[in-house]
Amino acid sequence: MSEIKPPTAKRIPHPHTAHGDTRSDDYYWLNDRENPEVIAHLEAENAYLEAVMGPLEPFREQLYREMLGRIQQTDLEVPVQHGPYFYYARTEEGKQYRIHCRKRAASRGELEAAPEEVILDLNALAEGKSYLSVSVLKPSPDHRLLAYLQNEDGSDRYTLYVKDLQTGELLPDRVEDVYLHQSLEWDATGEYLFFTRVDETQRPCYLYRHRLGSPEQTLLYQEPDETFRLRLYKSASGRFLFAASTSTLTDEVRYLEALQPEGEWHVFTPRQRGVKYSLEHQGQHFLLLTNQDALNFKLLSAPLLSPSPDHWHEMLPHDPGVYLQGVLPFAHHLLVYGRQGGSTQVWVWDLIHGTYRRLEWPEPVYTVAPADNREYATDRALVSFQSLVTPRKVLELDLNTLQTTLLKQDEVLGGYDPAEYAQERLWATARDGVRVPVSLVYKRSTALPAPLYLYAYGSYGISIDPTFSPTRLVLLERGVVFAIAHVRGGAEMGRGWYEDGKLLKKKNTFTDFIDCALHLVEEGYTTPERLMAVGGSAGGLLMGAVVNLRPDLFRAVAAHVPFVDVITTMSDPSIPLTTLEYDEWGNPADPEFYAYMKSYSPYDNVEAKAYPHLLVTAGINDPRVGYWEPAKWVARLRELKTDANTLLLKTHMGAGHGGSSGRYDRLKEVALEYAFLLDKVGLRD
């Protein structure tokens, strides 16, 4: 390997000065993707990766084949009732993408005999394309048309198409620059589509109405605050459309009767900084979930005819131990979902009988949530359940009796007995005394200490819950312990858990991860020589921070699309999503936030010292983390690090934040990561 020379990025002085402080950024030139030298450098890094990983190619292929052998390649999702049809998606062996279908049936019992109608075959759409994403599919109210969003470059700019499901032809109605999700809804008549479009920074901030068959695209609202984005959704009842202006700290929701598409949108309650809320509808009331005077949220109702705060009624008061995250209404029931004790929970409220009960589950570590539910006038709901050892189940829940019927459990091929695996919930004590949960799974026959794969995210209040992965079995079968550190910055322990890991408390995320790693070492699960760490996006920032803080604690690290150049990005409002992030990271125009960011920003804190083995990925079209961030970080690491450990950069030259779009291509990316990490901890076959 010694004869393989890594690419060396040239250095061009580019100082940044703010608040009397100057930061050097000699690799700033990599920001210019129109510069042929930039593309040549990225391609040279890709070639270097393939050269270094060349000896591991048989191992990569073996891992890929093993993972593929665990997956049911030809599979069928649970059909979901929506009006006169049951909608579902299926996959076929050898095909990269899903096939969306439906069957006309009055009940689930009639499905087997009902003929299948393919409404959108993504494999046909992907022919001749290196990337394809279809993010939203919305049948019209009469089910004759299908509106969907399609993207071919990995950005957040999608194109809206409308397909006639009777003829199979596309209507001339076509709209560019629609946001990738929570951005498309029909009115109740089926004559109008509502959608949100993005600005030049890919911020969804324009709400439009379009009448089918006409050139009309009426701008209804433009969100003026650059720290807010728009999201569009329809109530579970179908009666209302909601357009939510939302930021990290604050929400403001507009609503419209879906039967009155040309009517006036009304603001439910004006935005107040620090007050978040969301709306749903049931019967004669709006349902309001809000954190006003309630850190972990409370549930209120508001009469449709007089929804002012004077008429709000408290349904579920604030409980410091229960984090309410959502409510799914049915005609006579509510599914309330959230978190308690560090785990996801679902409660059923029977509004006829006045009972409010939490669903109970037989495992100590699990993830439960409402599944896809599209019928309002029903007393049956779909719920999903899984754990680190139990493959995902979709259950039909009787909302009256709370009895469940198993509709489907994901099949694991190649032989799988959950009794051979142990899952645990540990609690690591952070340096400030806070107890941080850690979920882990391993094969019972594994001799400890063992190689350990430690994953975390820790930002935006996003929780990383314990779920099942058939591809993870290639790790467990090789004697690897898999663990999730539920660090602050997520919301595993409630909204306060998030608040304690953002802005001027962001370093808690990094030190929590380190303290969880130390706990796993102290408890005998692993050793630093066998410890692997993985994170992506904001979790990639976490990886960058911890290898600066404790490079000696980890043997190998994978940082996917890492957000590592915090100050430079957050100082540039022209970069997609920067302004939306001020309430997450702070605005470096403020000297206090500038100094704090500089103290942890991975790119700004690379030092002349030894680092672990590192695999870094990027996406050339990534709108969330510019490809140049990981590219610059790797260049500076190559310049300064004093070790001979492997440092690799893989840039997806035709994709964005999520990497490859095809399922087999994604699996090959996992095989690359696993081969890299396992080789470094001595588990290369």
Automatic annotation (TrEMBL):
Keywords: Aminopeptidase, Hydrolase, Protease, Serine protease
Gene Ontology terms describing biological process: proteolysis
Positions of the UniProt region annotated as Disordered: 1-24
Coiled-coil region list: none
EC identifiers of the protein: 3.4.14.-
Alphabetized SUPFAM superfamilies for the sequence: alpha/beta-Hydrolases, Peptidase/esterase 'gauge' domain
Single annotated GO MF: aminopeptidase activity
Domain Peptidase S9 prolyl oligopeptidase catalytic: 467-682
Domain Peptidase S9A N-terminal: 7-409
TM region(s), chain numbering: none
Similarity field: Belongs to the peptidase S9A family.
Protein name per its UniProtKB record: Dipeptidyl aminopeptidase BI
Species, as recorded: Calidithermus terrae
Classification lineage: Bacteria, Thermotogati, Deinococcota, Deinococci, Thermales
Name of encoding gene: dapb1_2
